């Protein structure tokens, strides 16, 4: 049994502001069917940046979400879910004209994932720079974001402005591109836009699939990861699903193994991992320069990711701290 290093509190004062989309995934009530065959759908609130904010809060940290929802039943339902989970909703705007984004998602029996998005446009795409709650963004110790908010204007300009405001106010910038190819006009455009804000972030997390996509290499190795390195970066993470994660800093790099669990649905594992990591470093950035402590934090983040795969859906599966410590202790 490995020792549990719990000297990095997650309950500090630092605020993590997560920027981007929150939407509803509609998932079939039965598994292994196409969207057309599905007899019915269940609502599963999602959107990676919103999941990250809830992950932070569930672990005892302080989080806010910034984004736009439709001024409709679903938009208010989602804002309510954030609040119920202790996430500040001060940065949420409601669009009078456009609906909350919906995504119908299924994993067919042949293993192919099918998506159908209702974003024509959806409210999240219509967030304007002048609507941003700048006071909230300036109070962030960590500002986290993805790439879906880069796809179209005016949200793209709002995203770029929010990054600048957070950076000028001294926030640590954290980026998880969260590639969703079907939402982009082309793979080339996705790669170009995702990389267009690459050198701003100080913490970047990519999955193995994203690493391959962004580098154009079919190898998941140190050389391909390090080809994504830039001078402002403090920590690059590559998550490897059931194989854990790799980390790279200016001075050291290595791998932290995953936990063995009974996986049911991997949705949200990466968001849970990111929320856990940010919750640990928000009050103590020196962890990023201390390999032993960083490895403890990544072990904790791996445990969070693993637990999130043991239940259906993302938000219901995000763990609290006692659950994480129990998994670490029992491993
Ligand atoms: P993403 O959701 O962004 O694709 P991953 O699937 O790599 O990210 O998951 C993030 C982290 O969650 C991994 O680094 C790992 O620690 C944990 N994790 C994911 N899937 C599993 C699994 N099947 N078993 C155990 N841990 C997992």
Describe this structure in words.
It contains 10 helices and 13 strands. The protein has helices at about 50-60, 75-85, 135-140, 155-170, 185-195, 210-215, 220-225, 270-280, 290-310, 320-330, and strands at about 15-20, 25-30, 40-45, 60-70, 90-95, 100-105, 115-120, 140-145, 170-175, 205, 235-240, 245-250, 255. The strands form 2 sheets. It has a 9-stranded mixed β-sheet, sandwiched between helices. The protein is globular, with a radius of gyration of 19 Å. Residues about 1-10 have low confidence and may be disordered. The structure holds adenosine-5'-diphosphate (ADP). Adenosine-5'-diphosphate (ADP) binds near residues 258, 259, 263 and 302.
């Amino acid at each position: 049994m490995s020792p549990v290093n719990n000297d990095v509190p997650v309950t500090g004062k630092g605020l993590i502001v997560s920027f981007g989309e929150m939407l509803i995934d509609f998932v079939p009530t039965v598994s292994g069917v196409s969207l057309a065959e599905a007899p019915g759908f269940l609502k599963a609130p999602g959107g990676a940046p919103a999941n990250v904010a809830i992950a932070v809060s569930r672990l005892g940290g302080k989080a806010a979400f910034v984004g736009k929802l439709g001024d409709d039943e679903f938009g208010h339902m989602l804002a309510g879910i954030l609040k119920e989970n202790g996430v500040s909703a001060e940065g949420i705007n409601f669009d009078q004209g456009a609906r909350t984004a919906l995504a119908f998602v299924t994993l067919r029996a042949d293993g192919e994932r099918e998506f159908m998005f209702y974003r024509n446009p959806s409210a999240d795409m219509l967030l304007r720079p002048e609507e941003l709650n700048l006071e909230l963004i300036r109070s962030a110790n960590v500002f986290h974001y993805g790439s879906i908010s880069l796809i179209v204007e005016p949200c793209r300009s709002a995203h770029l402005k929010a990054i600048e405001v957070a950076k000028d106010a001294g926030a640590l910038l954290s980026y998880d591109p969260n590639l969703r190819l079907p939402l982009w006009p082309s793979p080339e455009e996705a790669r170009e836009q995702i990389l267009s804000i690459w050198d701003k972030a100080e913490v970047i997390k990519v999955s193995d699939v994203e690493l391959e996509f962004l580098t154009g290499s079919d190898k998941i190795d140190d050389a391909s990861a390090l080809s994504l390195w830039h001078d402002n970066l403090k920590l690059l993470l590559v998550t490897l699903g059931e194989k854990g994660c790799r980390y790279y800093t200016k001075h050291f790099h290595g791998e932290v193994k995953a936990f063995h669990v009974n996986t049911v649905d991997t949705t949200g594992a990466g968001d849970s991992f990111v929320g856990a990591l940010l919750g640990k470093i928000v009050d103590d950035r020196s962890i990023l320069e201390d390999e032993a402590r960083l490895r403890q934090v990544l072990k904790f983040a791996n445990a969070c990711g693993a637990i999130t795969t043991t239940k259906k859906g993302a938000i219901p599966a995000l763990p609290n701290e006692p659950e994480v410590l129990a998994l670490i202790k029992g491993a």
